[in-house]
Amino acid sequence: MRMMYRTAHIYLLWASLLNLLAANQKPGALGKLVTLWWLSSAAIAFSPFLILFSFFFESGASDLTRPLTRQGIFFAVFGVLVQVILSHRQKGGVATQRNPRSL
After folding, report:
1. For residue range 31-71, what is the model confidence (pLDDT) as tens digits?
2. Where are the domains of the chain?
3. Could you tell me which residues come within 8 angstroms of residue 37 by beta carbon, excluding any fewer than 6 positions away?
4. CB distance 57 to 71 below 8 Å
5. Cβ neighbours of residue 8 closer than 8 Å, sequence gap 6 or more
6. pLDDT tens figures, 65-88
């Protein structure tokens, strides 16, 4: 049982760190993809609440199945992957739009 509380605590710290890192991200010039960026930000912001809820209600269970923790982790990973892809696309789009004569 002690292991379950420890892992839930580590997951909660991890999701909170992701929130701190994602707080500095700006959507930039993504055009129609801004909605996807906001959706990924909401997924990152929502994941610690799921993990916190699971900390209180799933950690005391005798089995190892933890669906709320799994959902919280999936939300966090989805949000981070989408933001990494969009940030890479945004940087690539800015680099290809430069005027070659200005170099």
Report:
1. 778 888 889 889 999 999 998 898 888 877 777 788 888 99
2. 2-88
3. 27, 30, 82, 83, 86
4. no
5. 51, 54, 55, 58, 59, 66, 69
6. 888 889 999 999 999 999 888 888
